[in-house]
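Handout, section 4.2: multi-component inputs.
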Amino acid sequence: MDASPFNEAKVDEIAARISDGSATKDDVVYFLKATGHMLAELRDTMRAEAQHA
Amino acid sequence: MSAEQPNLGKVEKETPQLSIEEATKVFEKYATDEEVRKLLDENAEILSDILNEAKELKLDEKDLIHTLSEQRFAKIRRILFPILAVIPPLVTELGHMPFNVGEIAVPILGALATFRAHQTIQSAAGDIEQLRQIIRERVAALFGDPHAAA
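Output:
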């Protein structure tokens, strides 16, 4: 499943920067894109399961 | 049920400890940016899809826990849980709902977190009541109106 274009370690680093208030706009954009990608994966999985239900 | 959710306990250990205040500031700071706003909208749309799929699949809270406990969704847990911490007033609101908010809250509160950031774009702070209303409507659409049931 790790066809994800997002680097998990980087996401963690960004989370840390969000926590200490030093996150940049680029950080937030990356964070939201990663979140969206992962959520889409969950949605697609659920859709596939619904089709097989 | 507690014996079936060891992974949720693990989640808290895995999750980077985000400061609620700082996370809120960061999202609010950039939420007016067009690119960020667009991403927030997209995430909200996906989360809305997830809620609809959950309804379609008739997933109950236990099912959702099971799904999100799977290893393949570890990254989702790692990201969403700290986001959820940003919106304690909404957790309180959902605490009145007829299910265990700590368990079913992942997809719902993820959507809410997105809405919160979005909402702050459009009006000043103090929109929690309005946001709560959004939540109530979304939850009621999925699970019925718990207040009416009482």
